[in-house]
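Can't paste images in this forum, so I'm doing it all in text. The chain is below; anyone willing to post the predicted structure tokens underneath?
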Amino acid sequence: MAKNYISYLHFVLFFIFFTVLPSKLSAQCAGNDNVNELICDVTNPIYQSVDLFSLLGGSPVPGGTWTDDNNLQGLNPSTGILNAQFILSGGEYHYTYTAPATSGCTDNKAVVTITIGAYVGVGSQATVCNENNFFNLFTAFDSKVMGPHVNGKFTTTAGQPVESTIEIGQYTTKTTLDFIYTVPPVLACSPNSKSTNVQVTIYIAPKIGRPVDLELCGTTDLAGYTDLDLFDQLIGGDRGGNWTGTGLTSATDHNINLQELFDANGPSVYSYTYTVLAVPGNNICKNKDVKVNITLEKRLDFTGSKIEASKDICESEISTATYSAKITQGPDNIPNGTYDVNFSVVGPGVSSSENVRGNFVNGQFNFPIRSSYFRQVGDYTITVTGIASTTSKGTCVNIFNPFSTVLKIYPLPRLNNATLTALPICQNDMATIEIAAPQLLDGLYRISYNINGDNLALGETAEMQSVGGKASFTIPGNLSTRSGLSVITIYSITNITNPSPQCTNTANVAGNLYINPLPNALTVKAAVKDYCLNAPVTVAVSGLETLTNVSISYVLSEANISSVQTITKAVTNGKLDFVIPAELLLNSGETKITLLNLTNTVTNCEVNLINVTDDFVINPIPPAPTVLDQQFCKVDEAVIANLEPKGTQYKWYNSATATTPLAVDYVLKTEDYFVRETAVTGCVSEPAKVSVLINDTAAPEMNETADFCGLANPKISDLSNKTNVPATVAWYDAVDGNLLASTTLLVHNAIYFGYDLNETTHCLSESYKEVKVSLQDCEVAQYEFFIPDGFSPNGDGVNDSFVIKDIEFLYPNYTLEIYNRYGNGMYKGDNNKPAWDGKNYEKSGIAGGVAPNGVYFYVLHFNKDNKPPQQGRLYLNR
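Text version of the structure:
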């Protein structure tokens, strides 16, 4: 083998000689190629500065440039100095020298070939903290000389390949990992690969957790925070650290009473620092701390707060006025500080909201309001819609309701386009002057006016209230003594609604006032005929001339005396008539009527009447007829025509005051009737009362309760025997329903209807007795019942529920409780819910779930005669 290797070496040298020779001959200016320069020990410091130019053969011309054919680091292209330790993998690398252009060579390039031996580096022991999550194994090498070549592979000591970057964040306890790093061989330097050991020790960083800050309203929210565990405000993390902060009593204390903290220190942001120490002796992972902030705020109560705006003004001051407002706290103190106040301004032509920031100082908050809001006459409502501290986190729901004030801009009172009207009045009467002023706002005003025409008065004043563009004032009667036309002129108006300011303006409004004459009383007469007592008495009045509607007052005297009465009626051809109220004519005999006053209701002008009277007679009423009380059977359906006395002179009524007689076919009732007789004079007698009795048979009555024992199969005949008329009573299943045979079995809680025949009046009962039957009146000693010991709720229709048959007749108020073998309640039953279907009704939710097969226990409470509860067990098998 040695001889073969020597022969191979001779061949290689021979090939290189004949290959390089032509290059040397044609590129002497760039030098000759260097076939291979071996750097097997790249860690040697001499290889930090390899002069490639010195490796060229021949006579290269200096001043050229170098290029790295492999595009690696480490080459200075100007000087040709190579730092071989910058090359991170073993292997063969080529560098080309290009002679300067001035050399004039036809072949101006030469190549230096360098082979770098594999370097595995110096393995070391690394310590890391797992909080970095990932670790690059190359950083575990001793880099005092240089790092290893990077074209190698990492494996575990068991030979399993691993990536150069490993995940360390997954470890929760201190762990030491061993790795082997191997780089491939470079044959020119060594035929074998090289390996080294790397050891990584992973330390565990303290887990601090993620803080959760707490924001609470100290006024209302702290009832559940009297023992707050600060660890509840951390998500994850170790619990072996220490807390520091206000309210903690020791390094190990982590519970605080927020209620006491707030009561003692008031609203604030309380900070608590949690520190977790690294494992002792571990200087790789550092101590960690985190801060939890607890914000406790105070609820503010703005109840009773008020706002005042700057003064009201007149319309003429709009262009020069400035505006501001002041908020004053209510009974609850508002802390000094900066607040945002939201307010709105709503008024003519404006509806705007604004936020202003300022300071509450000693319970007051002053702020300006833009004058641009107030550009016209009207009421401007300034409403505070919200107040919030700028430092608040909004944890408290403050007690706040909007509160307002009104700023008024009063108009100059205007009677432009106004009209003045007045209803005609009578001589010497007070006149009411109506003003329609569309530009006059609501309010109280003072006016100055003159009167000209048939009446004259100058410089008079009056006050008037304007509502909806309408107002009125009065002129005294002493200024209207003459009938005819008066002209009213208003020349000045002052708004006196608000004492300050009082806005005044000139006016020029005129209107007419007509004054009517009094009516003529000289031709008025009264006439009354004779009437029966209690009959309507008509009075005929004449001599009213051209009047069309009047009001007349009068009195009665002699046999009937009255106070002053007044009637109002239309006049036809100078006449009218009216009826004197019956309550004024209670006595028979001669009576006088005297007319006192006449008013023309068209003009409301009135005049007193003198000696306008008339006498008339009130005839007495004949005596009432003599009558007897009468009786009828209800089934006879008797009518008015059956009553005594009979005759056309008699009229029957259903009340003493009725005026319309009853028809002869009116069906009688058990009630009082009244009969009147008409005398020859046409006067009708007083009514005579007749009591009519309509007999009816009473409904059956029960002598005892309708309680039976259902186990004895009671019948209708048993129900009849409990009535006061067992021989004559008949039973039906409904009103106007079916007649039930005496052998019909009774039904629990069913309702039956009983009717009877009265043997004395021989009248059938129209009413009935309604009876509800109970079948639960059983004597326990006479009957037995059976409690089953199991059931199978599988839906096959057989024994699907647990039921105690017939117990409802013996113990109607019983209750049943069922428990599982652990004593947990499963079901509670009674007469209304007697059957258990095998479901758990004591759990939450609907039906609670299906009970499994097995043994269950029941407790039966009889709730009767002090009988003790009975216990037992049953088997559920599906």
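The CA atoms of residues 534 and 582 lie 6 Å apart. The radius of gyration is 62 Å.
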